[in-house]
Amino acid sequence: MSKSAAPAFSEASEAPRASNHLDPSIDWRRIAYVTQVSRALDALEETTLVPEKKVLYQFSARGHDMAQVLLGAQLTHKHDAICGYYRSRPILLSLGVDLVEALGSSLARAGGYSDGRDIGVVFNYPNPDGPSALPMCGGVGAQYTPTAGWAQGIKFRTETLGDSEYKSAIGVVLGGEASVATNGFWSALTMATTLKLPMLFYIEDNGYGISVPSHFQTPGRNIAANLASFKNLKVLDGDGTDPAEAAALIKEAVAAVRGAEGPCLLRLTVPRLQGHSFQDTQTYKSEDFVENEWERDPLPKLKDHLVPSLMNEAEWNEIEKRAQADVEAAREKAESLPTADPQTVTRHVFSDDEPQTMGGLRGAFVAPEGAETPAPEGNRINMVTAIRKTLDHELSINDKMVIFGEDVGPKGGVHAVTLGLQKKYGDDRVFDTSLSEEGIIGRAVGMALNGLLPVPEIQFRKYADPAVEQINDCGTMRWRTNNRFAAPMVVRMPVGFFKCGDPWHSQTNEVQFVHSPGWKVAVPSNAEDAVGLLRTALRGDDPVMFLEHRAMLDAASARRAYPGDDYKLPFGKAKVTREGGDITLIAWGAMVERCEKAAETSSRSVEVIDLRTLMPWDKETVLASVSKTHRCLIVHEDLQTGGFGGEIAGVVADEAFLDLDAPVSRLTMPDVPSPHNPALLNAVVPDAGRIASKIDELCEF
Q1: H helices within 107-240, ranges in order?
Q2: pLDDT tens for each residue of 45-80
Q3: Assigned superfamily of 28-336
Q4: Catalytic residue among 505, 549, 630, 636, which?
């Protein structure tokens, strides 16, 4: 498209205009004031704070502002929640976010949205007395599926738990027209329409995704027109710069969702009166198009709507002056705020002993204390049965726990771990989902923020890749909101080989989750540990990756007696499964069994350590063992380059170098995908024979 061929907005301009009456249910004076405050903040940042390098990221909301403020005025339920994006400050102001907090966040000062940890335009607002703003993310489209999860949480609370306090509450997601091309949008749309969730998709269409015209995102440039025949979805479309029309459409959309009609998509066309960000000069737009955008500025239209029908010129000017004065006063206070103490920057990665303001079950569910001493019951059972039994018990004592994923319902999961749980607890607590891993994890985030305990399943490790953005956003949430929000969940995920391998179902790559701040990672090697670690995860307050090795799910060596309904294992506490004095072997998951077999056949005195959890991991036990044996061999199934064994080796080299009589060594898969033929698989995965040979090599060093 040439610069002169600007995106058209004929759909909105040709739509029937609402009558110019003043809706008496709307506080128009407040609409005018908050819109003027938004304008004053944008102007202050652009003319002063950005040039002075006090604000490092700035995204103007001019043109989007009035309609957002109108939307905020309709969010009146205590349990309403919005999730927006980087151009959503006007609706935050409309919900009541303090001006000093808003401006202090832009200045990256102490307090505010994140204590200076995140960009000031990435908002969050936990509001115990009214509508909240869920933590926004830096990724385009990442806001959709958590909002769907929040809306599903509302539905669960009202229909399953019978909580009338949530009746008529809604979830609202804000997005631009470019974001409708993302996986998150379509996944959330599928969830909202198939489940008839109380969710409003509010799409601000300014015609450009940074510099890319909207026809690259949506054929015909109008997502509302394209979704007109979508089932179970009310679709509205209009001009977001016309006060009467925008107010009427927003009111209709919110009322429809509140009235249990199901989800609604409202598209409003608005001008983006500044660049994408402060640095964007908009050279990709023609002068005529920019002039046309300013002619559509909603602020003069708002003035024409209110003067003289509601107020005179003097009152309008007084509102503008008051807004500017309030912003200037907030500036003085915000600029006086200190920078956060750098020594605090490592706090709030995990829950520790300080609960988050919003999200999770803290305060709503008091779990039994549990015990670290197992109380064995009956015969040895396999890991599948042990995990199922644990899930069963925790479902029975926690009515806010839900299990979901692809095929976890009637089928009971592809590995039969959830077999029978849907029949016992119902399809509102154990349910199948659409085929979208981003949707599975994103929905879990929203449900966790709503105070539920989501236990999503990802069928195989490789299948988690489409959900990486949601996984990372979830893990960093507590830290980047300075403990205002957290989304505790337990993600169950089979990993590794089983009889054979392949590049799609047999990946481990656990190190990716270890390298995602905020996630705890458990890799049990047997049924007893699986019970203890899973129960700790389900009663904790952090997101946990619970990795179930496929080869161990029914392995005879992994069978144990069920350790009881109270059994819990602390994270970060390894187990010495075999004591020895010549060499230390460190492993987890399926490699523990192979290390033990190698130790049994070796003529050396071998100490075997099962780490059990990788985040956190028990370096104290490892270092104590190495100081005794003076040799260290790390065995894992993952690839060698970048594998977690490198982290362990680094710590041992740093902290136990003088204790070593041989180099720290690793035995891993080579840097290749998991091969399918069993002969090829056996050639690359460490086995007991190769481990025993490596033991001899190091002991003879």
Answers
A1: 144-159, 183-195, 223-226
A2: 999 999 999 999 899 999 999 999 999 999 999 999
A3: Thiamin diphosphate (ThDP)-binding fold, Pyr/PP domains (3.40.50.970)
A4: 505
